[in-house]
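Hi P.,

Sorry for the delay on this. The queue was packed all week, but I finally got your sequence through. Input first:
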Amino acid sequence: MSSSDAAATHPLESDFGWTLGVVAKAYRRIADDAVATLPGGPRGYHILAAVSDGQPPSQLAIARQLGIDKTVLVHLLDDLENAKLVTRRPDPADRRARQIVITGKGRQTLRRAREKLDAAETALTTGLRPAELSAFKTALAQIARRTHTLADGIDDC
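Then the structure:
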């Protein structure tokens, strides 16, 4: 058996936790570099992505969706607002609540960050055929949706 065959059959290669951890660590490293200049880094990126489409969400909705403590979110939003990437406005349905609206500058910043992340993802997934990558992303998204629903209310901060 060649060394490449031995590596392909190593018990760790079939261990979900180990393989997911290796991929997550590598992605986090390259993704952190891709959004390092964004206020809040990866969290700032996720906030911009969360507010980029549709009806502007409330601060509470963003906190729940991203699993960020409300007080931590306020500081992240302060930084994004100071950088003129988002604005906060009263929710017409509830004046006590604030909606988060992405600005034009925020959209441009998000687009550039997505381009960098796409390049990082391409580098990480080199060697996968398009069908394999699509199947992987679909399966991962299904797991993420289910896990996110089960973890609702658990704060990762």
